Amino acid sequence: MKKKLITLFITLVVIPVGSVVILSDIAPFPPTEPMPLMPPKPEPRDGYQLFYSFARNGEVLDDSFYYVSTKRQVIYRYDADRYLELQGENCSGHIWFHDDKNNIHTLIQKRFYTAYDLPKYHYYNPGKQYIAIPTQNLTDFAMSVDGGRHFITARVSPMAAVPGDEVDFFIGVDDSPIEDTFFDPIKGDIPLTISGNTGYFVLKNGEVIFGESYRYNKIDYGHGLKMYPVYYPSAAFSDKRIKDGSKFGAFSHLMDNQEYKNRVESIKHIQPEPYQGWDKIRCEVGAEK
Predict the structure, then answer these.
(1) Mean pLDDT, all residues of the chain
(2) Hey, where are the domains in the chain?
(3) Sign of dihedral through CA atoms 239, 244, 248, 254?
(4) What is the pLDDT of residues 251-281, one digit of tens each?
(5) What is the DSSP string of 18-81?
(6) How many helices (H) and strands (E) does the chain have?
(7) How far is it, in rounded angstroms, from Cα 92 to Cα 284?
(8) pLDDT at res. 214
(9) Does residue 75 carry a pLDDT above 70?
(10) Are 142 and 157 in contact (CB under 8 A)?
């Protein structure tokens, strides 16, 4: 009887437990924690366009995507042929630049605009080659130097960024370049150039925030297109705050350039009229079609 009980115990307990131990060493049981979810894959959606996000270095992030409604509304007109369209809903999305006369239709994909980003101050852009689209908080703006065929985003230095309610108006013009030379104790003479395509933020107190740069880079747009010289602007105040707050000696030196002084002073009193376009960006929630 005792032997039968031992045999039964071995059969019902020892052997199953031993088998479990052995099998767990060979093929471990899955952990009790839930497996991480796989990232969703982009799929077409009716009425929406799929976009991929961009990294800071300009690279496309294949695993980061979002959808924007294909509905649009015209939010600004430069003249009868050139205008801006916002693609999206609730005044948020991507901006298209159109020039029907020259068959230019450019999507500004690297910048997503929300209703808060669209400027509420007066906006004029009589320039033909220089097209700039500022933002409400002046942190950055999209700009083109080839009539809207290509756009880049230009950052505004923290020293110059101010709330949009301090801005009277923005005006983008096709200026002639200003050339100068800045002497650096280490690098020697450095060419200092203000691009001939410039945007000016004129504040309500009369100050001017002026887009400028003494460095320039060439952008190869690819597809056999020529390399365009593009001046990446930093924005700087025209008053003494540039000397107090800027660590870049070239900017301080620029303020001693008489041609620069004359240009900034003239901008303070510029009359944007007569102007064929709208005086503000207009976007109405629910007006998109």
Answers:
(1) 74
(2) 1-31, 39-69, 71-268
(3) positive
(4) 556 666 787 778 778 887 887 778 889 999 9
(5) HHHHHHHHHSPPPPSSPPPPPPPPP---TTEEEEEEE-TTS-EEEEEEEEEES-EEEEEESSSS
(6) 5, 18
(7) 11
(8) 36
(9) yes
(10) no
